[in-house]
Amino acid sequence: MSGIPTVAVTDLADDAVVLDVREDDEWAAGRAPGAVHIVMSEIPARLHDLPDVEPVAVICRSGGRSGQVVAWLNAQGIDAVNVDGGMRAWAGAAKPIVGDDGTPRVI
């Protein structure tokens, strides 16, 4: 997605607060330890639940959905960046992934 601000996974701390916009089943399979979960379709109604960080780093499986969310958030005047490569890149960089109970996961 041209023109969408991005951040490389390697530029984020392992415990970075990211906004995960994947579906519930994807979230349950494993996520970044500091992630906040808001399904993509719920973003407009849940702006008050966005992480209190700037810019908001938005992540999905591979970067497509999160790029759309970043474009929309930026249009609303919210500073947001797309996590390049999504959770696939997060896992590929050997960053920690946890499940619902906080135990390590591999996705």
Task: Reconstruct the topology from this structure.
Layout (H helix, E strand, L loop, with lengths): L5 E3 L9 E3 L3 H6 L6 E2 L18 E4 L4 H12 L4 E5 L1 H7 L15
Give the helix tally. 3
Count of individual domains: 1
* CATH topology tier name: Oxidized Rhodanese, domain 1
- Give the overall form: globular
- What is the name of the CATH superfamily? Rhodanese-like domain
Rounded to the nearest angstrom, the radius of gyration is 12 Å
* Oligomer classification: single chain
Would you identify the CATH architecture? 3-Layer(aba) Sandwich
* Unreliable stretches covering 5 or more consecutive residues: none
CATH class: Alpha Beta
- Average per-residue pLDDT, rounded, comes to 94
Distance between the termini: 25 Å
Instruction: Give the spatial strand order of the biggest sheet.
Output: 1-5-4-2-3
Estimate the strand proportion: 15-25%
How much helical structure, as a percent, in the residues? 10-25%
Question: Which structural class is indicated by helix and strand composition?
Answer: alpha/beta
Order of helices and strands: EEHEEHEH
The major beta sheet can be summarized as:
5 strands, parallel
Number of strands: 5
Organism: Nostocoides jenkinsii Ben 74
Domain Rhodanese: 12-99
Protein name: Rhodanese domain protein
Keywords:
Oxidized Rhodanese, domain 1; 107 residues; alpha/beta; 5-stranded parallel β-sheet; 3 helices
